[in-house]
Specification:
homohexamer, alpha+beta, Alpha-Beta Plaits, 5-stranded antiparallel beta sheet, 4 helices
Chain lengths: 157, 157, 157, 157, 157, 157
C-alpha cells in the first residue's frame, strides 16, 4: 500500500481533492490528561470556586481546530461548521477526559481537526496546572468516529 | 495550593513575569504514536525509498513550537533559540517515539513549546498515515526535563 | 431567551451551521475615532502631502476582516468575497468615520467580519497618530445593516 | 508636528526603535459594550448559571493582545510579560465595562496591546450575544494609563 | 485601463467576487534560485546523505500557499484543493528550479497561491544554504499557466 | 563544508543560537518586478491619481517581514526593531525596484526578514496589477548588505 501524501517519486504533496464530492463530514476524537489525584481535586475545586480550567481548555480546543491546516503541513483548509468539546473528570484515571466533535461540508474529512482540538485542549490543561504537577501525561488521543466521504464510516473498537 | 493562572477572583490571566530574571531555559518532552506493525513497516520502508514521514513530522514539530503562544491561551510569547526533534521507530510499541528539545533565554520556561512540538509532530504523523491506519493512538506525551528559572530542575521519573 | 453559543450545560461551543443554507450575506458596520481638532488637521494635511493615514487604516481593516475567525473564539471561518472600507473626516466630531462592507456566500453572516474591519482600522488610526494625541477615543462601533440568511434583514435605527 | 510613522517623503515605515532603551512598560485601556437592559440581564444570569460570556471575552482579549503586531501594520512585535482583563457589568450604561492591563520590558510601549485586548474582548461579547441584540454598540475605547519609556507617563483625564 | 483593486476614488478594496461562478481553477508558477556551482554541489550531495534542502523547501512552499491571503493584502481566502511543488537542480544556471501547481474550486484564481508557494520555497532554500553562500539570487518567478474562470486560459510564452 | 541547519545525521533543526551574543543587526535586500512598459505607466499614473500600488506593496512588505519566522521553517522568531521599504520605478527594466531595510538587536541576523519583505512586496505588486499584465516577472531578489553578529559584514558585489 502506498501513502497518499507522497507522489510516485516519494515527494510529499497536498493530495488533490478537487474531484471529490462536497459532502457532510463528521469526526469525533478523544484524549486524556492523566494527573495526580490531588491535581484533579485542585482542578475540580477550582472549577467550582477559583477558576475554570476546563472552560479555558474547551475554548482553546475550539480555536485550535480552526488552526489545523496551519499546523499540519499537508492538511487542506476547511470551512468548519461546528466544533464542540466536552471535558469531564475521570476519577479512575485519575485525570480529565476530552472529547471533540467537528463537522464540515467539504471535500475532505475533519479527523485532523477533531484530533487537533483534543491535543490543544490537553496542552492547555497542562499549561494551566503545570505549576502544581509537572508529571502529568497527555495520553490515548485517538479517533472515535468518522463519517461522510467516499472512504465511509470508521468507528474505533 | 492555588493555580497561578487565576487571580484572587478566579479569573484567568497571563501571569506577570515582568520581574523574573532572563535566564537560559531548556525543556525536553517526549511522546509516542502507537500503530499496527504493518503501518510502522510502511513508514520505515517509506523513509528509505518512498517518502519521509519522520522528516515532515520533525519539521512540523519545529514550526509548531513557534506557534505555542498562539495556540495556548495563557502562554507568553518567547524568542525560542533552538528547537530539535528526534523521531525514531519503536518496534516494541510498535510505533514512533518523538522527542523534542527547546531552548530560550527568557523570563519563563519552554515546557509548553517542547510539549507542543511533540504534539504537532505526532498529529502530522497521524495525518500522513491515516489512509492506511485510522486506529493509531497518540500517547504518553510528557515532560522529561526542565531546567533554568527559579523553580529549578525537573526530571521525570 | 438562551444564548446560542452555549449548550444546555452552559458550555461554549461553535454553533452548528451545517444545516443552514449557503446564501449571499452582506453586513455593513461603522465606527469613529474621536480626536483633537489639531490631530484631525494633521491627518488631513498628512493625507495630502505627508503620509496616508486613512489609506493604511483601510488596508489594515481589510486584512483584519480576514482574521476575524482567528480573533473571535466562536466565529466560523468564512470565505469572504468582498471587503471595502471608507474612511472620511468628520469635522463635527471631530475625527474620522470608518465604514466597512463585507460580503460572502456562506452558512453564517458576516457581521463580525464587518465589525472587526472597523475595529482594526480604528486601532490602526490610533497607532499612527498616537505620538501626537494619546487621548483619542474609538467609539460608536455598531452594525448598520445585515442581510441574507434565515434571521433576515437588520437595519440600525 | 510630523507623524513618526511616515518618513520625509510621506512613506509609511516601522519606526526604528533600535536605539531606545529596554525598560519596563505598562499600559491600561478601557472600553464599553452598550446594550439593552434585558441583554445585560441575560448575560448576568448566564454568567451565574448558563454560560460565561465575560470569561470567554476575557480570554479572547488576552489572546488578542498577543496578535497586536500581526493586526496593526506598523506595530513592533513585543514579548508581552503580562495581560489581564477585567469585565464588569455597568448597570447605568447599561452594558459591560472592559479594562485591560498589559506589561512588557521592551523598546516600545504597549498601548496598542492594551487597546487591542479591549477591542477583541468587546467584539467577542458582541459575537456571543448578537443573536439576542444586534443593536449593541462598542464604545469609548481609550487609553487610561501609559508608563515607562522616554515619552513618560500619560494619564487620561 | 483601470486596476480592479482600486475603486473610482482610487481607494484599494478587496474586489467583489460574489457574483462569479464557482469553477475549477488551476495555476502553475515557476522560479529559480541561482547560486555558485559549489553551493549546488553541496545541496545535491546533501540531499543524498546529509539533509534534504529540497524536501524542506517543498514543504515550506506548500504551507506558504496556504498563507497567501494572509500575506497579500487584497487576496481572497480560498479553500485550496491541491498544492504540489517540484524542485530540481539546474546545472546550467547553476541553481534550483522550483515549480508549483495549485488547484481550487472557487470564485477567483489561484495565481497568487502558486507564486507565493514558489517564493516561499525559494526563500527557504536561501535560508538553509545562506551560511555557505550569501550571494544567491531568487529570480525569474513567473506564472506559467492559469486556467478556469471567466478570463480564460493564460499560458506564458 | 556542512550546512548548519542539519545535524550529524542529516536531520533538519533550528540552529541553537543560545550562546550567541545579542548585538545590533542590519540587513538590506533588493528585488525587481519586470513588466510591460504600459503596465509601469499604468502604475505610475495610478499612483498619482487613481490608487497607490507602491504604498500598498510597501505596507505588505513591512507586514511580511513580521511573518518571516512563520513562513520559513527553520527561522528563529526575532523582535524586529525597524522595517522600511522603498519602491521606485525603473524605466530601463521596465518595472519597479524594491529595497527593504530591517534591523533588530538579537542573536541572529535579519537577512531572511529583509528578503521576505522584498518578496512579499513583489507578490503584492503582482496581485494588484495582474488583471492588466499576467506576464510580469519577480526577479533578482538578493541580499545587498548584512551587518552585525560574529560572521561579520557582507556586501553584495
Amino acid at each position: 500500500m502506498a501513502l497518499s501524501h507522497f507522489d510516485g517519486k516519494g515527494d510529499a504533496h497536498m493530495v488533490d481533492v478537487s474531484e471529490k464530492a462536497v459532502t457532510a463530514r463528521l469526526a469525533v476524537a478523544e484524549g486524556f490528561v492523566r494527573m495526580a489525584p490531588e491535581t484533579l481535586a485542585l482542578i475540580s475545586s477550582g472549577e467550582a470556586k477559583k477558576g475554570d480550567v476546563a472552560g479555558i481548555a474547551r475554548l482553546a480546543g475550539i480555536m485550535g481546530a480552526k488552526k489545523t491546516s496551519d499546523l499540519i503541513p499537508l492538511c487542506h483548509p476547511l470551512p468548519i461548521t461546528k466544533v464542540a468539546l466536552e471535558i469531564t473528570p475521570d476519577e479512575a484515571l485519575p485525570g480529565l477526559r476530552i472529547e471533540a466533535t467537528v463537522k464540515t461540508s467539504g471535500q475532505t474529512g475533519v479527523e485532523m481537526e477533531a484530533l487537533t482540538a483534543v491535543s490543544t485542549a490537553a496542552l492547555t490543561v497542562y499549561d494551566m496546572v503545570k505549576a502544581a504537577d509537572k508529571a502529568m501525561e497527555i495520553t490515548a488521543i485517538r479517533l472515535l468516529l468518522k463519517d461522510g466521504g467516499k472512504s465511509g464510516r470508521f468507528e474505533a473498537q
